[in-house]
Design goal:
Layout (H helix, E strand, L loop, with lengths): L1 E5 L3 H12 L3 E5 L11 E4 L2 E4 L5 E2 L4 H8 L6 E2 L7 E4 L2 E4 L3 E2 L2 E2 L2 H7 L20 H9 L1 H16 L8 H4 L1 H4 L5 H10 L8 E4 L6 H9 L2 E3 L4 E7 L2 E6 L6 E5 L1 E4 L3 H7 L5 H7 L4 E12 L8 E3 L8 E6 H4 L1 H7 L3 E7 L12 H16 L7 E15 L5 H12 L5 E3 L9 H17 L1
Parallel strand pairs: 1-2, 1-16, 2-12, 7-18, 16-22
Antiparallel strand pairs: 3-4, 5-11, 6-11, 7-8, 9-10, 13-14, 14-15, 17-20, 17-21, 18-19, 19-20
Helix pairs in contact: 1-9, 1-16, 2-16, 4-5, 10-11, 11-15
Length: about 450
């Protein structure tokens, strides 16, 4: 079976790997010069550092299973057990225990000083219909909890806004806390914990994973291979691939669409028009990562901090990478690596600046936050990675949208979809969609 896998991000790589190991003949078609999607590394002086995803959920199996299958199990590492912080009301404050921003320890919350006043809980029924995360939490705990706890945590995942993100799709864990959010969060925090770390990375960086998948899978990969059209042709598929000046028609037995929603919508307009129309409604947020190599830094305790959007800062988070990952601290040889994230949904103006301006902006914000408690030192090297349209927004009604897509795709023989636009944006969730698409393709 010859299968076109359209899109060379982690979803497409996962699908191609599972197809190849089952004996199929996948051909991975990626329009850009690089595979890996949002899993990527860049050179920072003499270091290779992650400039996209840097960790994977360890408490669901898909990503870790793939890491093991491609021969990287010995390089799985947990982050250092150091807490994170929040920049709130002019200070770096310890992030208290929460369930996606819902406080689970009121004493720790009060000690942190993140909120101006005590939290009061109002128990209200959980609605059957989808609502925004902000409205659900604010009605029960107040807007300050949304602005200073829920927003920065959601922003770290989606680069979005709680007023638009779907409770059902973006924060089901909050919905599961029930009518009394405080009581639900405290009960969940008191329940027995899973053994082992919640997150893992790879020694040398998660950005090693895409190439390892290709090397282990042995399937054909074509970069700069833009897919122009996808058309059902008898009992197979005809794709037009390549530059407009020299397009090539190729025939495949099946297609796995692993491209982001905008590209998938365009390519599926003829074969699956209902799915294409639904996918056109998926919005995306753009963001950037500024990685800095610092000499003489003396950073506050913690592995980094989040910045609520109500604070007058351009950066939305920073990771003290050499404190979070022991392998990177060793490789840096006494220098410090810090990653700053810039940009949220709807806030594209800041990303229009050139790389030097983004570095200056990140350094200015970092100094204003860090230097009351330490020193940022001097910048030896920097690198900027822009993720234009990088993160799908799971807005209110997203699950219904996904249901429309999957129901329409199911009526088209030999066609599957996968990727971050559907069931989660983390590596584990995206890998799961790729594997599932491969399994359905093989089942015929």
């Amino acid at each position: 079976m010859r299968v076109a896998v359209i899109g060379g991000g982690i979803a497409g790589l996962s699908a191609a790997f599972h197809l190849a190991t089952a004996g199929a003949e996948p051909v991975l078609l990626e329009g850009s010069p690089e595979i890996g999607g949002k899993v990527r590394q860049a050179q920072l002086d003499d270091l290779m550092v992650d400039v996209g995803a840097e960790a994977m959920l360890a408490r669901r199996p898909e990503a870790v299973d793939l890491v093991k299958a491609v021969g990287l199990s010995d390089d799985l590492v947990a982050p250092e057990p150091v807490p994170s912080m929040v920049w709130s009301r002019g200070e770096l404050r310890p992030l208290p225990p929460t369930i996606m921003g819902v406080p689970s320890d009121l004493d720790a919350l009060v000690r942190s000083g993140i909120l101006e006043s005590a939290v009061t809980s109002t128990a209200l029924p959980v609605p059957d219909e989808d609502v925004s995360v902000a409205s659900f939490v604010a009605d029960r705990l107040g807007r300050d909890v949304v602005d200073r706890l829920v927003e920065p945590l959601l922003g770290g995942v989606y680069a979005g806004h709680a007023d638009r993100l779907s409770l059902h799709a973006a924060a089901p864990v909050i919905r599961e806390l029930g009518p009394d959010l405080l009581a639900g969060a405290m009960a969940r925090a008191a329940a027995p914990k899973a053994v082992g770390p919640a997150l893992v990375g790879l020694r040398g960086g998660v950005g090693r994973l895409p190439r390892a998948i290709v090397d282990a899978g042995g399937f054909e990969v074509r970069t700069r291979a833009t897919v122009r059209s996808v058309r059902r042709d008898g009992d197979g598929w005809e794709l037009v691939v390549g530059p407009t000046t020299a397009p090539v028609r190729e025939r495949f037995d099946a297609v796995v669409m692993a491209a982001p929603a905008p590209a998938a919508s365009r390519l599926l307009a003829e074969a699956a028009p209902r799915a294409a129309f639904a996918l056109a409604g998926v919005d995306y947020a753009s963001m950037g990562v500024v990685a800095l190599l610092l000499d003489g830094a003396d950073l506050p305790a913690g592995t980094g901090f989040l910045v609520p959007p109500v604070e007058p800062m351009d950066i939305k988070a920073a990771t003290f990478s050499t404190r979070k990952w022991a392998w990177l601290a060793e490789a840096a040889g006494g220098a410090t690596v810090v990653r700053a994230s810039i940009g949220r949904a709807g806030d594209t103006g800041v990303l229009q600046r050139d790389d030097a301006a983004l570095v200056d902006l990140a350094v200015t914000d970092l100094r204003s936050i860090v230097e009351p408690q330490g020193s940022l030192g001097t910048v030896r090297a920097s690198v900027v990675q822009r993720w234009g349209g990088g993160l799908p927004q799971y807005e209110v009604g997203h699950r219904d949208l996904v249901r429309t897509v999957t129901e329409d795709i199911a009526t088209v023989p030999g066609l599957e979809v996968c990727g971050a636009a559907y069931e989660g944006v983390g590596i584990a969730a995206v890998v799961a969609t790729g594997r599932a698409a491969a399994e359905r393709t093989l089942a015929g």
